[in-house]
Amino acid sequence: MVSHVDDLTIDYTEDDVLIIKELDKEVLASRGGWTTVIYKYQEWNRTKEDYGPVKFTVRRYRKRNDEYRQQSKFNISNADQAKKLVGILEKWTASPEDPGE
Fold first, then answer.
1. How many CB atoms lie within 10 A of CB 21?
2. Cα–Cα–Cα angle for 18, 21, 17, nearest 5°?
3. How far is 51 from 53, CA to CA, in rounded Å?
4. Statement: residue 3 has pLDDT above 90
5. What is the distance between the alpha carbons of residues 89 and 61, in angstroms, rounded to a whole number?
6. Which of 2, 23, 56, 62 is deepest in the core (most CB within 10 A)?
């Protein structure tokens, strides 16, 4: 298991093949025993024997007994979906005040 946030990864190898290849990551938040990380990655396509399109995933980790354990994840399956999500978040955060606060 991993005890430091910088060592968190989604790289996954099976039968000496890197199935999930982490391309980049950013720590979104780290507070108390909780950490949120967004990853950019590709998955190995066995049929084509090549990596597929770039995907994104947000993972939430909890640190217990000095080890990070994944608690939840949200996958963004393609760049178009990521752009739509960014657009919605930009629209929602553009207003100066949130009436729900």
1. 15
2. 5
3. 7
4. no
5. 22
6. 56
Residues 66/56/18/71 CA torsion (nearest 10 deg): 30
Residue pair 98/89 in contact by the 8 Å Cβ criterion: no
> What is residue 100's predicted lDDT score, i.e. its pLDDT?
59
3-state helix, strand, coil in the chain (%, to 5): 20, 50, 30
pLDDT at 74 over 60: yes
Residue 60, C-beta contacts closer than 8 angstroms, at least 6 positions apart: 34, 35, 36, 70, 71, 72, 73
Taking only Cα atoms into account, the Rg of the chain, rounded to an integer number of angstroms, comes to: 16
Q: Are 85 and 76 in contact (CB under 8 A)?
A: yes
| 65 has pLDDT over 80 | yes
Question: What CA–CA distance (Å, rounded) separates 19 from 42?
Answer: 8
